[in-house]
Amino acid sequence: MPVLVASDLDRTLIYSSAALALTMPDARAPRLLCVEVHESKPLSFMTETAAGLLTELGGLGADTAVFVPTTTRTRKQYQRISLPGPEPKYAICANGGHLLVDGATDEDWHAGVQARLAAECAPLEEVRQYLADSADPSWVRKHRVAEDLFAYLVVERELLPEEWVKELAVWAENRGWTISLQGRKIYAVPKPLTKSAAMREVAHRTGATLTLAAGDSLLDADLLLAADKGWRPGHGELADESWTAPNITALPERGVLAGERILQEFLRATP
User: CA-based Rg of the chain, rounded to a whole angstrom?
Assistant: First the structure.
């Protein structure tokens, strides 16, 4: 049976220039590979060593390991990324709202997700309207709705009032939603919309009996808890809260070097 490897992407395997956290002298900095271009500009990177490790993982073959990119990104945002190695057969986008199979949405899965959201939490429009009414234009740069599933704000982080985020989290909790602050983005996501549910579906389809996972944010916690083994980097929401669990290894590495370490751990844990 294959091992299923489900990994978050942003600030777990791939990094923007602002998130690289390269603290060594320039002459000792690792060589970087650009894996995403947006509006003709390089946007996301991994080290060349990490690229080699991911290629090795993908090259093990579907009978040994199934690598599943697992992201809160929309499908369009995910498709901008060019990861090294074989094209993954499965990908999880929109925090589990879309399961891609050979690059195409599994419509039955998506319909099931929509039904759960309608039954279990407040509607997206109510949350979107609350964000529009309560967020101050002085620190909000953009209001966005992703895939008609969840909402997020792009903010000026240094101007963002901490109390507002706390109040938003309480308001959302009472309506079946969760809040996650990642870099300059504040995500409002329905609780039933999870990466873990989609990971379990892929495990069922592939027959995987061992699941490995990695992630850095609050939205990755359910994924890590659902996996047999999980890793989190030394940065991000989970690290800031010293979050852990019996099956989770908290790594010391921060920034792009954490991506290398995570891929090393995936390979070590793959029989």
Answer: 18
- Look at the block and give the residue holding tokens 């602050």: 181
* Predicted pLDDT of residue 88: 97
Q: Is 100 helix (H, G, I), strand (E, B) or coil?
A: strand
Tokens standing for residue 115: 């039904």
Residues with Cβ within 8 Å of residue 120, at least 6 apart in sequence: 176, 190, 191, 192
Residue 211 and residue 183 share a domain: no
Residue 69 and residue 220: Cα distance in Å, rounded?
12
CA-based torsion, 157, 162, 167, 171: positive or negative: positive
The pTM of the full predicted model, rounded to 2 decimals, is 0.94
The residues near 131 (Cβ < 8 Å, ≥ 6 apart) are: 143, 151, 153, 168, 188
Contacts of 86 (CB under 8 A, 6+ apart): 58, 59
Which residue segment(s) compose the domain that 67 sits in?
Answer: 3-114+194-269
CATH of the domain at 12: 3.40.50.1000
Give Cβ neighbours of residue 62 (< 8 Å, ≥ 6 apart).
2, 89, 206
Beta bridge mates, 100: 91, 105
Looking at every residue in the chain, the average pLDDT score rounds to 97
pLDDT for the residue numbered 270:
95
Which stretches of the chain are DSSP H helices?
A: 48-58, 75-78, 107-120, 124-134, 162-173, 195-206, 221-226, 237-240, 256-269
Residue 183 has pLDDT above 90, yes or no: no
Q: What pLDDT sits at residue 182?
A: 87
Q: Per-residue pLDDT for 75 more than 90?
A: yes
Pairing of strands 104-105, 98-101: antiparallel
Co-location of 39 and 107 in the same domain: yes
